[in-house]
């Protein structure tokens, strides 16, 4: 059974994490984008669905020469936890679709704030980046996940696009575990970008 609600309890985006980038060619372009997500969380044994927005700020060159290296920087707006629903959160994972056709050369994480001793990592697989932060994070706090800096080699031609990952509750683009105080157990929060409102995070033209 599924109960729907439009209450945006989770993942409030109140500001932006920003990062500079130097492109191999062309000028760097950064435009914050708000991505609507469809989410669900179990409450009293029933899946409750709701909508939530996340802000991404991806910096990439507008143009790049074929066969040259270029940098893409993936930043996100902060998470603000509502203590009424999120007394404790852990195991956050965010997926981002990388520019198809570009060859990944290197990855690193920089920045972030109020992460405490949280583990953090980023991996590339099947054309996606997955950023993870172990937590724990507590209600009433605001934190920013690290910024991903990725270096790619441009293909022979085409347009290189990035977007938020995830296609459904079985293929989430954003997930975490939330402490359900009614049962004193962690339950899964599952989200993916609303397919009715696709959002492009960056676009680079190969010349």
Task: Describe the model.
The protein has 207 residues and is mostly beta strands. The protein is 0% helix and 55% strand. The protein has no helices and 18 strands. It has strands at 2-4, 28-30, 33-43, 46-61, 63-64, 69-76, 79-80, 88-97, 103-110, 120-125, 128-133, 137-138, 142-143, 147-153, 158-164, 174-180, 185-193, 202-206. The strands form two sheets. The protein has a 16-stranded mixed sheet that branches. The chain has a two-stranded antiparallel sheet with strand order 7-13. A hairpin with a 2-residue loop joins β10 (120-125) and β11 (128-133). It is elongated and about 55 Å long. Mean pLDDT is 88; it is low at 1-24.
Number of strands: 18
Query: Could you estimate the helical fraction of the residues in percent?
Result: under 10%
The assembly state of the depicted protein chains is single chain
Q: Give the overall shape, derived from the CA principal axes.
A: elongated
| Rg on CA atoms, Å | 17 Å
Biggest pleated sheet: 16 strands, mixed
Poorly predicted tracts of residues: 1-24
Question: Secondary-structure element order, as H and E?
Answer: EEEEEEEEEEEEEEEEEE
Helix count equals: 0
> What structural class should be given to the helix and strand makeup?
mainly beta
In round numbers, the mean pLDDT is 88
Strand content: over 45%
Distance between the termini: 51 Å
């Amino acid at each position: 059974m599924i109960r729907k609600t439009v209450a945006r309890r989770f993942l409030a985006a109140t500001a932006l994490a920003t990062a500079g980038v130097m492109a191999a060619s062309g000028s760097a372009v950064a435009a914050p984008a708000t991505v609507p997500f469809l989410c669900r969380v179990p409450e009293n044994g029933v899946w409750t669905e709701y909508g939530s927005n996340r802000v991404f700020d991806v910096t990439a060159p507008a143009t790049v020469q074929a066969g040259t290296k270029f940098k893409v920087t993936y930043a996100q707006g902060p998470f603000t936890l509502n203590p009424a629903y999120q007394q404790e959160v852990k195991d956050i994972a965010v997926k981002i679709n990388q520019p198809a056709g570009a060859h990944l050369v290197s990855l690193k994480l920089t920045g972030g704030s109020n992460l405490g001793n949280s583990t953090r990592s980023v991996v590339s697989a099947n054309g996606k980046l997955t950023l993870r932060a172990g937590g724990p994070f507590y209600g009433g706090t605001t934190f920013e996940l690290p910024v991903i800096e990725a270096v790619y080699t441009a293909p022979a031609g085409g347009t290189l696009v990035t977007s938020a990952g995830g296609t459904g509750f079985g293929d989430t683009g954003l997930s975490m575990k939330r402490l359900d105080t009614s049962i004193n157990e962690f339950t899964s929060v599952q989200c993916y970008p609303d397919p009715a409102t696709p959002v492009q995070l960056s676009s680079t033209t190969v010349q």
